[in-house]
Design a protein that fits this description.
Shape: globular
Strand order of the largest sheet: 8-9-15-14-11-16
Distance between the termini: 66 Å
Radius of gyration: 31 Å
Number of strands: 30
Helix content: 25-40%
Strand content: 15-25%
Number of helices: 17
Structural class: alpha+beta
Length: about 700
């Protein structure tokens, strides 16, 4: 019997082929092969939302090759990824190849190892039409919203705008946070910190002002802070209470998609897209010395914390062998999955727990190694013993010369047993100071004041979202699903609704204007609860509880009515962005010039159009002279959106550089210097014989 297995990527095909051996051929579909064509709605709303699928442009030859190849095999197995998108790809492949959906020709691999592939190939099933219909419903919802809303936004603001059902909500979350920051009114408060030395000892410890004999006290102005400070300078200090205890810290659970993206952002500075690319490669298979191609992690799109018994046993054996019995809890840890999770796959874990990062480092790229190390350490630590700490809390009475009584508090801890922290500790969104150990303190102990310091503070507005905190918020609100977080962020960045400022995500004026328009005219589309409910409805379709066409009918009935009202409400309205205004005056008619958006990007045009049709290209000069011809250097973008620098006199001058040229000269050879804007920016000389470089301040 000749068997053909169709997967999505060549890397995955190569790994699986090794395990299946003779009698099997494995080929790749290169992702989706059939979809809704881009240039039209491709959904017949009048015919009960009938989708009009077509072969994706550029994949015609691949599809023809698949059809010819399929004729030569007795059995065809569809082995695309084990999620909604993968199920839909299998369904489309079945249609293209004329496969019988009543036959069990669908297989999935949670991990691409010998055992994982054997389990999959020996457990064929039917294509799951509930999964397929959930994907179809999402695809059609997003297409209808995007196709109907985008022209409306383009008419009311400027050409080229687009809207997305989930992306618009993500932008709203960022815009709402920006509004909170603007409205925030800082409030003054003061702290008083003290450093004490126990009488007869030499080691000082830190403590903070807590209040007076009436309880906790807030210091809201300098006058009060000064009065208390003056009272405390010559006070007598004594420990009034000591509380000692034990604290046990448990390890974090293994990764799911969202927590992997968050932790990679916090610890590695990776964007979600970069994290998922490396994880996909680790899942599909890596060539390892003496082992060949092997998948190093389980499927990376999951929101389940379930772990297989074999994986738990494997990592417990590794922990016992490597760290000893003290680091192994008596019973395996079991983590509770959220009620809303799909639970179709395990948590993200290494497929071979004994394969520590050092063993595979030589076979991995830098990104692959960093992500594998993160996943391996998190999973292994999740099955290790608690970290045990001894805690001490001290209350310190301050008795002033004028008989006032104030209270200071100090706390600290020591680690009795490091447990899982010997391997891994979870990252935090904000920096936190570690508490220090306190000296041996006892009640009634007299303290000498070493230092007393009042400090003025102001309350701070909520922080802007980072990728990590936005993914966390999307997950908490129930917006999107594990497989969509990376694409949501990439989309709203590419549409210029938000921009990055260092690690923060900030809305652009365009993002704020679009969001405010959507709030007024399409409140449901950008309503967090409504969007979360839509996600639940899609999950219900996947679970076989809801009919996908019913879901589309209910949504579209309300949406189409809202769209017509919005068109009527804004019939004569045209919004002009501040960023689209310029200081330039038209040299033909004297009217102001404005920024316009066309098929090939932005340009400057006369606001008197159509009476005056004067237009100019936008030139982004950086204030640096061309090193070849002394013309002006301008900032430009490639077709893929990457920034580069070139001479304004092109094509007569061919100067071009990916790195930003500077006005500064090299102190060694006198050539101009360049700035490389990488994770660690540096300034360097391009003269190969010179080699000068320095880190940017």
């Amino acid at each position: 019997m000749k068997n053909l297995v169709i997967v999505e990527s060549p890397a995955k095909a190569k790994t699986i082929k090794k395990y299946l051996g003779k009698g099997y051929d494995v080929v790749a579909s290169m992702g989706h092969v059939r979809d809704l064509p881009e240039k039209r709605l491709s959904v017949d709303i009048k015919k009960d939302f009938e989708p009009k699928y077509a072969i994706i442009k550029g994949k015609e030859d691949l599809v023809n090759d698949l059809k010819e190849k399929a004729k030569k095999f007795d059995n065809i197995f569809l082995a695309t990824d084990p999620d909604r998108e993968g199920e839909a790809i299998s369904w489309h492949l079945a249609y293209i190849l004329g496969l019988d959906l009543s036959e069990k020709n669908r297989i999935t691999f949670n991990e691409i190892t010998k055992s994982g592939v054997n389990i999959g190939i020996n457990s064929p099933r039917n294509v799951d039409m509930d999964l397929v219909n959930a994907q179809q419903a999402r695809r059609i919802l997003d297409r209808v919203v995007g196709y109907k809303l985008s022209p409306f936004l383009s008419q009311k603001i400027h050409k080229g705008l687009s809207a997305g059902r989930v992306q618009s909500v993500a932008v709203r979350i960022i815009v709402d946070r920006e509004e909170e920051i603007r409205k925030f009114v800082p409030k003054e408060y003061w702290s008083i910190d003290a450093s004490f030395v126990p009488k007869g000892q030499r080691k000082a410890f830190d403590s903070s002002f807590y209040g007076d004999e009436n309880g906790k006290m807030e210091i809201n102005d300098e006058k009060t802070a000064t009065e208390i400070f003056n009272d405390l300078e010559n006070a007598n200090y004594e420990i009034s209470k000591i509380k000692k205890g034990k604290r046990r810290k448990s390890p974090a659970p293994p990764f799911i998609t969202s927590t992997l993206q968050q932790e990679a952002s916090r610890k590695l500075g990776f964007q979600a897209k970069r994290t998922m690319r490396a994880a996909q490669e680790l899942y599909e298979g890596i060539e390892l010395e003496n082992l060949g191609a092997v998948g190093l992690i389980t499927y990376m799109r999951t929101d389940s914390l379930r772990i297989s018994e074999d994986a738990i046993n494997g990592t417990r054996e590794y922990i016992l062998k490597t760290y000893g019995k003290d680091y192994l809890p008596e019973n395996p840890r079991v983590f509770k999955t959220k009620a809303s999770a799909q639970d179709g796959h395990e948590a993200i874990r290494p497929t071979m727990p004994e394969m520590n990062p050092d063993k595979v480092k030589a076979s991995l790229s830098s990104d692959q190694f960093k992500i594998y190390k993160l996943i391996w350490e998190r999973f292994t630590a999740s099955q290790m013993s608690n970290c045990v700490q001894s805690t001490t809390q001290a209350d310190i009475d301050a008795l002033t010369k004028n008989n006032k009584k104030y209270l200071f508090k100090a706390s600290g801890y020591t680690v009795d047993f490091d447990g899982f922290t010997v391997l891994y500790t979870e990252g935090k969104d904000s920096e936190q100071e570690d508490a220090k150990a306190l000296p041996d303190l006892k009640e009634k102990m007299v303290l000498n004041l070493k230092k007393l310091e009042p400090s003025q503070h102001f309350t701070e507005p909520p922080a802007r979202y980072t990728e990590a905190s936005l993914i966390k918020a999307l997950e908490e609100y129930g917006i999107g699903r594990p497989s969509t977080y990376a694409s949501i962020i990439s989309t709203i960045l590419s549409r210029e609704y938000i921009v990055r400022e260092a690690k923060s995500l900030k809305p652009t004026e365009l993002g704020e204007v679009v969001t405010n328009l959507m709030k007024k005219q399409f409140s449901k589309i950008v309503n967090l609860k409504f969007t979360a409910q839509m996600e639940n409805d899609l999950d219900s379709i996947e679970g076989g509880k809801n009919d996908w066409k019913d879901t589309l009918r209910v949504f579209y009935s309300d949406f189409s009515e809202t769209l017509e009202k919005a068109k009527e409400n804004m019939k004569d309205v045209k919004i002009t962005l501040e960023e689209d205004k310029t200081d330039e005056i038209c040299d033909k008619c004297g009217k102001p010039m404005v920024v316009k958006h066309g098929r090939f990007g932005k340009f400057i045009a006369c606001s008197g159009y159509p009476d005056c049709k004067n237009i100019k290209n936008i030139v982004d000069e950086i204030g640096v002279k061309c090193p070849k011809c002394s013309g002006d250097v301008i900032r430009r973008k490639s077709k893929r959106g990457r920034v580069f620098y070139g001479c304004k006199n092109y094509p007569s001058c061919d100067f071009v550089s990916w790195d930003e040229p500077m006005n500064d000269k090299c102190p060694n050879c006198g050539e101009i210097l360049y700035k490389k804007n990488t994770k660690k920016p540096k300034i360097y000389c391009q003269n190969k014989e010179c080699g000068y470089e320095k880190a940017e301040n």
